[in-house]
Every structure is written in structure tokens, then in C-alpha cells.
Write a structure and sequence with these properties.
The complex is a heterodimer of chains A (115) and B (154). With 115 residues, chain A is an alpha/beta fold. Chain A contains four helices and seven strands. Chain A has a single domain, classed as Transcription Regulator spoIIAA, CATH 3.30.750.24. Chain A is 44% helix and 23% strand. Chain B is of the alpha+beta class and 154 residues long. Classes of the chains: A alpha/beta (115), B alpha+beta (154). At the A-B interface, helix 1, strand 5, helix 2 and helix 3 of A face helix 1, helix 2 and helix 4 of B.
Chain lengths: 115, 154
């Protein structure tokens, strides 16, 4: 679980689990808050790359971190948001407060950029 | 085709995944789309989580899940013998939660309503709660309206 949290400068990257339900939510928020409170975190990024399932417990996790970061003057974003997660974001209104990082960069563009 | 199963498990959060997986396998006989499957799994997860957090709270009790199919219709019941809900109407209001301390979003019932065709809640304080949900497989559904704007609810 610990390796799911990575701090790069002022960014806290959280790799979300495969199934984000109440069971997993409880573990994530405690650890996330330890990082947020212990280091100078200005941005929290939730990475949904591995996530295949999310219910309303996941919304609680993101909302809670959003409120915390908002209070501290920071921001919350999400990356690798698949169709299903996007639908949950839409339905709950989360997309209004959480910036979704889009990956429009195609492999071709990526290669050109680094050539 | 008619089929029916009944499972019983302890109100432990680790069983949330178990319950929705069993429901998904049961429904998969009807060749649902991935979206239909995800909808049903989410609704089951919400109902079971409610029983664990609100029904039983700090104690452990048994939760029963009944899944039935009749032709293309799936019916799922989640039954607990926990504290029950005093005001069902209030509990079903989006964003209403009795446990903001646990960061509950108050969207559980709203998700069940959004992802299923029909939901009925029967509850008796001190006796327990039964949630009955129905979903027709293979039917085109219109996109759900957003439940609420998360912003400004606190």
C-alpha cells in the first residue's frame, strides 16, 4: 500500500487501487492525510490507471482531500480517468472541483517531442 | 430462464468486493454489457456498504444477498438486521449522510437509483433494512442526470 504514495516536490501522487470501495477508501485517506500534513504538499493527484471499479466511497475520499487541500490553498487533480470513472465523476459533480488531466499526447507526438 | 441464489456473509468491509463479484457472476449468464455489469456491481456495493456502516455500525452482523433472474430481469435484495432507518425519505436524499465523520458522500442511494431501474427500501428501526433493486438487461437507457453539484454542499 505504501508504494502507492509518491511525493515529487510539492506533488503527492496517489495510485488508486483496482477496486475503490469503502474497504480501500479507509486505508487511502489515512495515509494520504499523513503525507498532506507531514510534507509541503500543494497538489494531490489521484491516478486511476489501475482502477476498474469505484463507488460512492471513492467520492468521499476525493471530496475529503479536496476540502483539505482547498483549506491549505492547494489543488486536487485526477489522471488516467477511464470512461467508467468519468461517469462517476459526472454523476456526482466531482468533475466540477477536480481537474481531470487529459492525455491527448499520442505516441507519435510523444516520439517527435523527444527526438 | 429463472434462477435464484442466496448468500449470507458477515458485515465486514472486505465482503463488499465479494458481494458485488458474486452478483456480477450471477448476472453474467445474461450476457450483460460491461456497463450493465459495472452498474449492478456499483449498486450492490452501495447497498452492502450501507448495511455495514449504517446498519451495523460498530458491531458485526449478518447480511443476506438474494439474486433472482427472470428472463432478462435481475432482482437483487440486500437484507440486514441492523439498526434500521428512521426516516427512509430523508436517507435517500442526495448528499444527506449521518456519517460525515467517515467522509460518506451521501450518494449511496442516489447511485443505486441511477444505476438500477427500480429500488425499494423497507426499514424498521431496531429490526433492520431490506433494499430491493431491479434492472433489466439488454435495454437501452438514457444517460443519467448528474445527482448534484459537489461544490457548495458543505
Amino acid at each position: 500500500m505504501e508504494e502507492a504514495f509518491k511525493v515529487i516536490k510539492t506533488y503527492l501522487m496517489i495510485k488508486m487501487p483496482k477496486e475503490l470501495d469503502h474497504h480501500q477508501a479507509m486505508r487511502i485517506k489515512d495515509t494520504a492525510d499523513k503525507y498532506i500534513e507531514g510534507k509541503d504538499i500543494e497538489h494531490v493527484i489521484f491516478d486511476f490507471e489501475d482502477t476498474e471499479f469505484m463507488d460512492s466511497s471513492g467520492i468521499g475520499v476525493i471530496m475529503g482531500r479536496y476540502q483539505k487541500m482547498n483549506y491549505l490553498g492547494g489543488e486536487v487533480a485526477a489522471i488516467h480517468v477511464n470512461k467508467r470513472i468519468r461517469r462517476i465523476f459526472q454523476l456526482s459533480g466531482l468533475y466540477k472541483i477536480v481537474h481531470i488531466i487529459e492525455e491527448n499526447v499520442t505516441e507519435q507526438e510523444h516520439r517527435e517531442e523527444f527526438s | 430462464m429463472t434462477n435464484e441464489i442466496k448468500v449470507e456473509f458477515e458485515s465486514l468491509s472486505v465482503n463488499e468486493g465479494l458481494a458485488r463479484s458474486i452478483a456480477a457472476v450471477f448476472v453474467s449468464y445474461l450476457n450483460p454489457t460491461l456497463e450493465e455489469l459495472a452498474d449492478i456491481k456499483t449498486a450492490v456495493s452501495e447497498a452492502v456498504t450501507n448495511s455495514i456502516i449504517h446498519g451495523y455500525g460498530n458491531r458485526t452482523g449478518m447480511i443476506q444477498m438474494k439474486c433472482k433472474m427472470h428472463n432478462k430481469t435481475v432482482m437483487i435484495e440486500i437484507i440486514d438486521y441492523g439498526c434500521g432507518i428512521k426516516d427512509v425519505k430523508k436517507a435517500m436524499e442526495p448528499l444527506y449522510t449521518t456519517r460525515p465523520d467517515l467522509e460518506r458522500s451521501g450518494m449511496g442511494f442516489a447511485f443505486m437509483e441511477a444505476f438500477m431501474d427500480e429500488i425499494q427500501v423497507q426499514s424498521k428501526p431496531g429490526k433492520g433494512t431490506t433494499i430491493w433493486m431491479k434492472r433489466e438487461i439488454g435495454v437501452e437507457r438514457k444517460e443519467e442526470e448528474p445527482i448534484a453539484f459537489a461544490k457548495g454542499n458543505k
